[in-house]
Amino acid sequence: MEKFGYVLIFVGLAAALWRVKIWRENIWASVVVYSLFIFVGIFLIMQDRIVEVTVSHLGAFKTLAKEATVEVDQIKQLRRDMEAGIDSVAREATQVRQLYEELANKTELADRKLHSIRNAQQEASTILSELQEVTEFNEAVVVAQNGDRRAFDRLKAWANDPSYRFSAQAGSAVKSIMNDHWEPYYVEGFTYPWPPGTDHSNISLAEVRHKYASSPEYKVHLIEYVWYREDLPTRDRMQFLVEVIENDESLEAVEYAGRYLIQGARDIKHRLEVCPIDVEFLLDWWENNKHQFK
Fold it and tell me: Are 251 and 181 in contact (CB under 8 A)?
């Protein structure tokens, strides 16, 4: 096709020159006609090159287009992955927010329950403390009414403490117990169970103190025994009674010792109108008057 194109160009040029030289008429028409031959020839020469260039560049263009298409697909896939990731993150964020809100609600509920529990515990602790205080007071009253000196001393301490919740009740209990031990009549004639053949008329106070400490069930017997041992100095007998009043844990023993101490006060013309278990008064009186006894 390239060679045929050269032929057409050559024929067209030759014919055009010949036509112009021989006939000299209709020159422009001849130029137009033979120019067509030349252009066709040129086209035939350039056809393969144009096709080659076209095909070569078309392949490159197709390759670029294919690569661009692949990249576009990859970008679209990446966009889809990103959108899916964003959706997943959004869902997870929503779940996290929901969990946080649920946790916050549960925490608030737990705080309210804890506050209620603490209030209940505090209230229960207060009630328990009050119950223990009531129980302790009632127990002290009952035990003191049954002759326990230490419980009686505890009631007196509470009665003298204005801050104590049951101070007034403690005072009333003390007065009631003192009245029980201040009756005008009391029993005497107790006999200590001396061993057979024992001459108890001249037993020393030291031995009596020993028997008193080892025979709690015979305390009143020994108190009466000492008081009526007129062979012993009054001061010694009175001192024995004072020791009982000051230290003994039995209100009954304290009462008998106090009664006999009050009787002994008459020897120095002192008439004591006082309850036999008014320990503080009797000890104070003895401290101030013991020098008068022999």
Answer: yes
**Vertex 250, ends 190 and 293: CA angle to 5°?**
70
For the question of whether the overall pTM of this predicted structure is more than 0.85, the answer is: no
Alpha-carbon distance 33 to 12, whole Å?
A: 8
Q: State the number of CA atoms in the 13 A half-sphere of 32 facing the CB.
A: 4
Q: Which residues contact 181 (CB under 8 A, 6 or more apart)?
A: 251, 255, 275, 276, 277
- Cα 288 from chain centroid (whole Å): 59
Domain ranges of the chain: 2-80, 183-292
Which residue has tokens 């509920």?
109
d(CA 235, CA 97): 93
Q: To which residue do tokens 């392949």 refer?
A: 59
Say how far apart CA 145 and CA 152 lie, in whole Å.
8
Count of residues making up the chain? 294
Cα gap 14→8, rounded to integer Å = 10
Distance CA 287, CA 187 (A): 28
DSSP state of 229: -
Q: What is the distance between the alpha carbons of residues 231 and 3, in angstroms, rounded to a whole number?
A: 179
pLDDT tens per residue across span 58-116: 455 455 556 656 666 776 776 777 677 666 756 766 776 787 687 788 778 878 888 78
Q: How many CB atoms lie within 10 A of CB 246?
A: 13
- Please answer whether residues 222 and 208 qualify as being in contact, where contact means their C-beta atoms are separated by less than 8 angstroms: yes
CA distance 245 to 223: 11
93, two tokens: 């964020």
Q: What is the pLDDT of residues 23-45, one digit of tens each?
A: 555 555 555 555 665 665 565 56
Distance, in Å, from the CA atom of 17 to the CA atom of 5, rounded to the nearest integer, reads: 18
Tokens of 230: 């007129």
The residue behind tokens 């000196």 is 149
